[in-house]
Design brief:
This is DUF6691 family protein. The chain is 66% helix and 0% strand. It is mainly alpha-helical. The relative contact order is 0.09.
Length: 137
């Protein structure tokens, strides 16, 4: 029963992403071609929601579901790794036309070609796991 609430939230999230066309290859293509504001609008709303949510948590000492205080760690200084990671993430996103987030949504919608993206994401995660101790963190 505990897992059911997570499945329900995931289902609703998948419906919202599908209906907003955030999982659409064409919308992602438009974004990277700077032809439409659609995806930038969705991303901007997500960023604004996150900023407001984090500020509410920090200022009101909101506790998690178990009653423990939520502690949000400050990010380490330095931006090189964020630039490198962002470039790899953006290139992958642009090349396949899909962010890793909606892979399961697209599979659920019957787009079986996304299995290639899914296996690529698994392979990339595995390769990162092999080299993570050698990478600067």
């Amino acid at each position: 029963m505990n897992v059911l609430k997570y499945l329900l939230v995931g289902l609703v999230f998948g419906i919202v992403l599908t209906k907003s066309e955030a999982v659409s290859w064409y919308r992602i293509y438009e974004m990277f071609q700077f032809q439409s504001f659609h995806m930038y609008g969705i991303i901007s709303v997500a960023i604004a929601t996150g900023v407001i949510g984090i500020q509410l948590i920090k200022r009101n000492n909101i506790k998690d579901i178990k009653g423990q205080p939520i502690e949000i760690q400050d990010k380490e200084k330095g931006s090189t790794r964020y630039w490198i990671g962002g470039i790899f993430f953006g290139l992958g996103w642009a090349l396949v036309g899909s962010c890793p987030g909606p892979i399961f949504i697209l599979l659920g919608a019957g787009f079986w070609s996304v299995l290639i993206i899914f296996f690529g994401a698994l392979l990339g995660t595995f390769i990162y796991g092999l080299f993570k101790d050698k990478l600067p963190h």
